């Protein structure tokens, strides 16, 4: 039985991969272990490791981050080192045949560094995409450390080939976050609004805004500009607190200033079914989350994408790109409310990525030559 180890650090990556992880667990010929770290183990972000455990998925190791929790670039860099040490110890004990990583965060980079030095083949999900921020640099670094790739689109595959990755080791699977997304969006708009004590007759926006590390000093002001715009247009608001990146404390302060507004609900975490239900039910989604770029199109929800965080990613038709300036935001909100929901079409896949990933994991060649990686060009 092949042993697959997945590294998870946030509610976001786990939500995207949950269906795939369940498929690995239930496959019968693959063994699954999970290494949990980062925000999963932090009370301030909802202690979301409990969701992994509630799903019946095996958490084989926890890599806790001790010390100062100041959200700045220096702490993020130090945490990559701390996580790398923890990953080495976890992988030595678990002894996986393949380490599975997703995306572009420091937790995944630490996992890649550890696995590479332990001679464990790495499979990377969502490589080959662009964003133009620190996420892009980290994502491409993980791709270059990886031996196999499960990408969402043909464009991502082409980009990895141009980066020197071997074409036969790049598989277009689609985005795993689309698997079961319609089924997960099981809570109706009326129940969602009633649960938050919001007015069913007024429009509502879902707000998910994370800081950009290179622009951390602007994060609070940009968040405040967006929130003020939504208030001007009479929108009710369900706002998720940001991730733990540099600048997040300023975004949290901006949200706190609106906490007592009767039209605003600030929440630390929404379980996956509640989050995608809000994404489907909202009149618009606002912020800079990859969920707006990748997942929201599966519901046709209009998305106002603010700033540079998703700058160069492939777009679906429902995305409106703006800067965090009052005039631009006002125009985007008017346009989104006027357009309403879009026809459902998603360039990121058909909702069957997990099955493809499991099939590939069964058959990936794991002979020693895989570890002697060289660029194909």
Automatic annotation (TrEMBL):
InterPro entries on file: UDP-GlcNAc_Epase, UDP_GlcNAc_Epimerase_2_dom, WecB-like
A Pfam family annotated for this UniProt entry: Epimerase_2
Keyword Ribosomal protein in annotation: no
Full protein name: UDP-N-acetylglucosamine 2-epimerase (Hydrolyzing)
GO molecular function list: hydrolase activity, hydrolyzing O-glycosyl compounds
Database matches in SUPFAM superfamilies: UDP-Glycosyltransferase/glycogen phosphorylase (SSF53756)
Keywords: Glycosidase, Hydrolase
Coiled coil: none
Gene3D superfamilies linked: Glycogen Phosphorylase B (3.40.50.2000)
Taxonomic classification: Bacteria, Pseudomonadati, Pseudomonadota, Betaproteobacteria, Rhodocyclales
EC number of this enzyme: 3.2.1.183
UDP-N-acetylglucosamine 2-epimerase domain segment(s): 23-361
Protein's organism: Azospira restricta
GO biological process: one example: UDP-N-acetylglucosamine metabolic process
The organism's place on the tree of life at top rank: Bacteria
């Amino acid at each position: 039985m092949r042993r697959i180890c997945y590294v998870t650090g946030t509610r976001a990556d786990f939500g995207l991969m949950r269906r795939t992880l369940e498929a690995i667990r239930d496959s019968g010929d693959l063994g699954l272990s999970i290494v949990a770290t980062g925000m999963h183990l932090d009370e301030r972000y909802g202690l979301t490791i409990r969701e992994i455990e509630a799903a019946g998925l095996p958490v084989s190791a926890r890599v806790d981050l001790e010390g100062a929790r100041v959200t700045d670039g220096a702490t993020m860099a130090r945490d990559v080192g701390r996580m790398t040490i923890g990953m080495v110890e976890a992988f030595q004990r678990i002894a996986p045949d393949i380490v599975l990583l997703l995306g572009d965060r420091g937790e995944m980079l630490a996992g890649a560094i550890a696995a590479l030095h332990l001679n464990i083949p790495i499979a990377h999900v969502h490589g080959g995409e662009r964003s133009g921020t620190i996420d892009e640099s980290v994502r491409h670094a993980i791709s270059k450390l990886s031996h196999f790739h499960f990408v969402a689109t043909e464009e991502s595959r082409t980009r990895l080939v141009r980066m020197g990755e071997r074409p036969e080791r790049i598989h277009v699977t689609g985005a795993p976050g689309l698997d079961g997304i319609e089924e997960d969006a099981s809570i109706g708009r009326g129940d969602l609004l009633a649960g938050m004590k919001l007015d069913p007759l007024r429009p509502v926006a879902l707000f998910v805004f994370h800081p950009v590390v290179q622009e951390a000093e602007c994060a609070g002001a940009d968040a405040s500009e967006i929130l003020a715009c939504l208030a001007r247009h009479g929108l009710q608001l369900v706002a998720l607190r940001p991730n733990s990146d540099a600048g997040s404390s300023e975004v949290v302060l901006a949200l706190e200033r609106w906490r007592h507004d009767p039209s605003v609900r600030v929440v630390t975490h929404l379980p996956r079914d509640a989050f995608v239900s809000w994404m489907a039910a909202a009149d618009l989604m606002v912020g800079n989350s990859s969920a707006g770029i990748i997942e929201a199109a599966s519901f046709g929800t209009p998305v106002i994408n603010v700033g540079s965080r998703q700058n160069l990613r492939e777009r679906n038709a429902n995305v409106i790109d703006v800067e965090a300036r009052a005039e631009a935001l006002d125009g985007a909100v008017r346009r989104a409310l006027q357009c309403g929901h879009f026809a459902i079409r998603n360039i990121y896949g058909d909702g069957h990525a997990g099955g493809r990933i499991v099939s590939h994991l069964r058959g990936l060649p794991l002979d020693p030559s895989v570890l002697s990686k060289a660029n194909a060009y």
